[in-house]
Design a protein that fits this description.
heterodimer; A: 6 helices; 70% helix; B: mainly alpha; 8 helices
Chain lengths: 242, 122
Amino acid sequence: MSPPAMGGPLGDALAGAEPAATQQLQQLAAPAGDAAAKAAALQSQAEEAAGAEAQQAIAQAQAQAAQAQQQAQAAQAAAQQAAADAQAQAQQAEAAAQQAAAQAQSDASAAAQQAQADAQQAAQPDAQQAQAAADQAAQQAQAQAAQAQQDLANAQAQAAAAADAAAGPAEAAAANATKDLGNEFSSVTPTGLPAVPCACTNCIRQAVDPAIPAIPGTPALPAMPAMPELPAMPAMPAMPSF
Amino acid sequence: MNQISSEQWKQLGRDSFDARLIAIIRRNHPDQAATMDLASVVGAFHRQAAKAQGYGLTDEHSAATYVYTAWLMGEEFDTRIPAIAQILNDKRMKTIEKAKALANFSRLVFRTLSGQAARSAA
């Protein structure tokens, strides 16, 4: 069986509604002292609802931003620690090399010089390795910090979208559709005119007929004065004969 | 030269109105639109557009808002909901105010039904 042509969204929403909503719906549907008062009350409630959603979105964004900030700080601290560790290792390797060199210098023989060369050669890779580790740690820390910044930006973007999502899908859809109606339908064009004017000059003339007010509520324009008759074109002179 | 009759011109206007409204519904309510019987929906649109005219909603934005509200709430929403009946039948209210009230009402109804209003109050 196909769904009803009209009223489907309300039927779906009613099926999943909480019992407590009934009383609120009755209040919403109840008339006020006069129509203008009821319209004003609806406007005020809608603005209040929009404000509550905005507050909720802001709170959510702030929480997500704080979390992302915390992650960024933790990544930064870890990076600094890794860099310090690598630096310490490099210094340690350098000290060991110097110590080996000093030991080697204390021997006055060629063997000692050889030992010095060997010690320096042995220490060099250790120092280079430690430096490379420090560089890698620093790069990782920068990448983590950049990721944390990206997470923060994502969190803010999600929070901005959360206002509608938090309001429930049906409400968000209705709100978006209302915006679309404002964009797609003119509030000055009478109902029933095509959105794209036809190229036929007759129907355009009919649409702008001054006897029919273009905007409801505005007075009809005065009739266009009759166009003066054009003077007759002078006869073409006879072509000279050759 | 080909000429478009008055009836053809009106038909163009109706088609344009229906097409734009259906596009908006499809964009914002894809699930419900997927099961929509287009012929019966278009027929209902025309009945609702005529009712909108009767309430003074003569510009296309107000009429479209009315027809969309009917699509959301059901064909007889204008008489079934006392607050809406009060607003639509008021001769002093401007067209734009009536359309705004319809949009506000729809949004608040769906907000209430989603339980969001109760959660916000708490």
